[in-house]
Amino acid sequence: MHRLLAEPTISRYEGLLGRETIKATIGRVLDQLRASRGAQSYEAIVNSLSADLEAVHLAQLQPVVNATGIVVHTNLGRVPLATEAQAAVAKISSGYSNLEFDLERGERGSRYAHVTGILKEATGAQDALVVNNCAAAVLLVLDTFAKGREVIVARGELVEIGGGFRIPDVLERSGATLIEVGTTNRVYREDFEAALSPRTVLLLRTHPSNYRMEGFTHVVSVRDVVELGVRAGVTVAEDLGSGALVDLSEFGVPQERTVREAVADGVGLVTFSGDKLLGGPQAGIIVGRANLIARIRGNPLLRALRVDKATLAALRATLQFYREGSFRERIPIYRMLSASIEELRRRAAAYADTIDGASVVESDAYIGGGALPQARLPSIAVAVSTEQPDLFAAALRRAEPPIVSRIERGRVLLDLRTIPASVDRDVVAAVVASTTSYSRSISPPASHQSRKPPTL
Ligand SMILES: *Cc1c(COP(=O)(O)O)cnc(C)c1O
User: Fold this and answer.
1) What is the pLDDT of residues 355-391, one digit of tens each?
2) Cβ neighbours of residue 351 under 8 Å, at least 6 residues apart?
3) Distance 384 CA to ligand 1 centre (A)
4) Higher per-residue confidence, 97 vs 242
5) How far is the CA of 269 from the centre of ligand 1 (A)?
6) Which amino acids bring their CB within 6 angstroms of ligand 1?
7) Domain 83-325: which topology?
8) In this structure, which residue's CA is closest to atom 11 in ligand 1?
9) What's the gap in Å between 370 CA and the centre of ligand 1?
10) 79-112 residue pLDDT tens
11) What local confidence, expressed as pLDDT, does residue 222 receive?
């Protein structure tokens, strides 16, 4: 054990994992060896151990470099928080706060009150409420209004949002009867009209955020649905999902309805995420008419879906940048969207100067899954040509910090749009180090060394 602990390839994990984890791993590997009874060289044991420790290290929650060019990346933690939002979290979390305490009156207050005003301002809605995520927001809306009643949804909008969260299943669980109208690809105002009954309580629209229909399609305009709702005295609810607060056309992104537009269209309840195009913490936001939000506030389920003080602090700090008009500079995803091609090209050139086999190429970045998956953004990437791109990408994932890249046409691409300029130096160093470990991993055994070494 002591000898193993002193091995440089093992002791290097001490700072990352702690001595106790390493000891436990050594114990486990030694037990396995004893059980298998095979004679193993000391070197083989060290190698097997360091592979195990590497696996334990990689499985830990840790920061990674998103070089995929996908701006809203659910698997990589969706979106980074603004520095000020991080500071707000630290400030509120490090001590007590007036989370549910009214300092003026000295009595109990509401946690939701801390963001209501700023959300109303950002969306034009009469009232607002925040829960854990947008899936929870949808669940809460349906649970509050739809139990034992009918909800009309266009067939083409009965989507699975991801992670198995399917609108029809949630509807069923909330005790509502789902009335599907239209066909998969076409739905008309008349379809909604014909489905209305005295039991109808909601006309539900869902943003098909993760897929797109093309070709022979027809959808009903929101205005038409709202008009129908007004006439029938039925609320229109819209799950926007990504929930842009600002017009994205200035970033070259196809027109996406903002939350304010949905509210202005007369949609009674709008739900959206805090960590998609808003660029804030994980949260689900419900905005809409005051009487409807008041009913949701009275739903006991709200208590089970409530947000933490850290979320509220980060959300408030993020929303502040929309109020001040400084979101382009302050919110990380908008900084990424604002970066000019020239700027990305200049940074990429510096990468290519240092990394063997690298060149600067044009690339497509994406807003990302669950938001606007098809929205392409012109971008610049560093392309590394290698014999085995999948092995090189694997080496990058093991780098310090881990780098998640994209493979395209046999090349490994590092898209500059999602890499903050502040980490360029570290990323270049990590890529160079990965190049070495990759070359070693694909080098033929020493006896075949006469062959030309693989080129990157
Ligand atoms: C992403 C998305 C959701 C789920 O949002 P979370 O905040 O991840 O729970 C719900 N509805 C739509 C339309 C979405 O795009």
Assistant:
1) 999 999 999 999 986 666 678 899 999 999 999 999 9
2) 358, 360, 382, 414, 416, 424, 427, 428, 431
3) 35
4) 97
5) 15
6) 133-135, 138, 161, 206-207, 209, 239, 241-242, 273, 284, 370
7) Aspartate Aminotransferase; domain 2 (3.40.640)
8) 241
9) 6
10) 999 999 999 999 999 999 999 999 999 999 999 9
11) 87
d(CA 438, ligand 1 centre) in Å: 38
For the CA of 207, the closest atom of ligand 1 is 13
Whole-angstrom Cα distance, residue 38 to residue 199?
Answer: 72
CATH 3.30.460.80 fits 65-77+334-448, yes or no: no
Bridge partners for 180 per DSSP: 153
Alpha-carbon distance 73 to 366, whole Å?
A: 9
**pTM (predicted TM-score):** 0.91
Give the number of the atom of ligand 1 that is nearest the alpha carbon of residue 159. Answer: 13
pLDDT in tens, 317-360: 999 999 999 999 999 999 999 999 999 999 999 999 999 999 99
**Cβ contacts of residue 78 below 8 Å, gap of 6+?**
72, 275, 276, 282
The ranges of the chain annotated as CATH 3.40.640.10 are 83-325
> What spacing in Å lies between the alpha carbon of 351 and ligand 1's midpoint?
36
Residue nearest to atom 10 of ligand 1 (CA): 241
- pLDDT tens digits for 182-191? 877 788 889 8
Kindly report the length of the chain. 456
Lowest pLDDT segment from 225-229, 293-297, 321-325, 336-340: 225-229
144: Cα within 13 Å, side-chain hemisphere? 22
Residue ranges of the chain that CATH labels 3.90.1150.180: 65-77+334-448
Return d(Cα 167, Cα 176) in angstroms, integer.
11
